[in-house]
Design a protein that fits this description.
Blueprint lengths: L12 E5 L5 E6 L2 E7 L5 E5 L8 E7 L9 E4 L2
Antiparallel strand pairs: 1-4, 2-3, 2-5, 5-6
C-alpha cells in the first residue's frame, strides 16, 4: 500500500513511498487523475491538477507482476 504526503487544495503534486519499480495510480472517486513510477529509493511523485478542498483521493500501487495493492485514502485539505 503506498504512503502519501498531505495534499491541499493548492497541491499540484502528490508524493509518497511505495514498492520500488511499481506504478502508483491516483483517483478522485472514479475519476483517474494521474500515475507515476516509483524510483529506486521507493519514492514517487505524481503531477495532478488542483483538487477541491474536502475531496477524497484514493491511491494504489501495481507492481511489475501486475499485483495490485489495497487502496490508500487521503483527504484534500
Amino acid at each position: 500500500v503506498p504512503t502519501v504526503s498531505k495534499v491541499t487544495y493548492k497541491s499540484t503534486t502528490i508524493a509518497g513511498k511505495a514498492e520500488k519499480g511499481s506504478t502508483v495510480y491516483v483517483y478522485n472517486g472514479s475519476k483517474y487523475i494521474g500515475k507515476a513510477t516509483v524510483d529506486s529509493k521507493g519514492n514517487y511523485k505524481i503531477k495532478i491538477s488542483k483538487q477541491k478542498k474536502g475531496s477524497s483521493l484514493k491511491l494504489y500501487a501495481k507492481d511489475k507482476a501486475g499485483n495490485k495493492s489495497k487502496y490508500c485514502y487521503t483527504k484534500v485539505y
